[in-house]
Amino acid sequence: MDKKLAWHESLELHELTAFNSIGLMKLKTTLPHIKNSELKGLYQLAIKEIEASLHELLAFYPLTPREEDEERKQMDETLFQGDLLVLSKTAVRNYSIAITETATPALKNVLVNQLNKMIQLHDRVFQFMYKQGNYPAYDLNKLFKHDMLLAKKALSM
């Protein structure tokens, strides 16, 4: 294995770690409210798989091109911010795919308008998170450190 990850690999690692961390927190928060035993079992399986994925991803963080920073941040609000960011980002992707599969002009126009709204929402959420210091997009050292803290919080829940 190489001694360092490339920048583009590191950014993909960041995206997957953040996505899995937020998803894991959401699953763990929701699990106690699920009554159906089969669905509860599926949630437990998903939690186990995502935890394993996070452990595997975290093993690559020492290879990211960054400096160590020992500052710790409070992560409680980050769950809500990250959940909204992931929701809006996923909506942008889903609308984009749906538009390419739509032949009816009236429906396509509606989907394009909704896509634009989701792009605007994503930007507003990102700008909010950036302003709050919870998405340091221009400081990869802080971004990777933030990912690690978020994943460790998700794993410790």
Describe the structure.
The protein is mostly helical and 157 residues long. It has five helices and no strands. Helix 1 runs parallel beside helix 5 and helix 3 packs antiparallel against helix 4. 15% of the residues are buried.
**Strand runs, count:** 0
Strand pairing plus helix content: what structural class? mainly alpha
Helical percentage: over 70%
The number of helical elements comes to 5
Radius of gyration: 18 Å
The main β sheet shows up as: none
- End-to-end separation: 31 Å
Please provide the ordered H/E string of secondary-structure elements: HHHHH
The unreliable regions are 68-73
Strand content: under 5%
Give the CA-based shape: globular
Mean pLDDT: 87
Give structural attributes.
single chain; 157 residues; mainly alpha; 5 helices; 0% strand
